[in-house]
Specification:
The chain is mainly alpha-helical and 122 residues long. It is 58% helix and 0% strand. α4 packs parallel to α5.
Length: 122
């Protein structure tokens, strides 16, 4: 869980605008596509972004698309290991051919800063 203070002022306006860019239909399509490829359902009762936060699902996804691209998937619950998984996914998808301009930052997912960017990358 993030220990950052809630944004206020201009930061709150930007956060609200980013939240407004989310498209539930695109998120559902991305989730269905991931579930189909990896052969697993997202955990029940868990938000889309929370299911991917630890990076395990993302690493499994890129390993289906490009086998062996993430050599080791960290199953530990320590935040830095979870963020390492997301970073490994981002490195692998860039090597797979996703342009850098379509990538998201680890904090976009981990701290829920820009979930629309995560969905766009997928």
């Amino acid at each position: 869980m993030s220990s950052r203070a809630k944004p206020s002022g201009l930061s709150a306006s930007i956060a609200a605008k980013l939240q407004g860019k989310r498209d539930p239909q695109k998120e559902a399509e991305a989730q269905a596509w991931i579930e189909e490829l990896i052969g697993e359902k997202f955990p029940g009762g868990v938000a889309y972004e929370d299911a991917m936060k630890d990076g395990i699902i993302l690493c499994k996804l890129i390993n289906v698309l490009d086998p062996g691209s993430v050599k080791r998937i960290n199953e530990q619950k320590m935040p830095f290991k979870q963020m390492e998984n997301v970073g490994n996914f981002l490195t692998a998808v860039q090597a797979y051919g996703v342009p850098a301009s379509d990538l998201f930052q680890t904090v976009d997912l981990y701290e829920r800063r820009n979930i629309s960017a995560v969905t766009q990358c997928l």
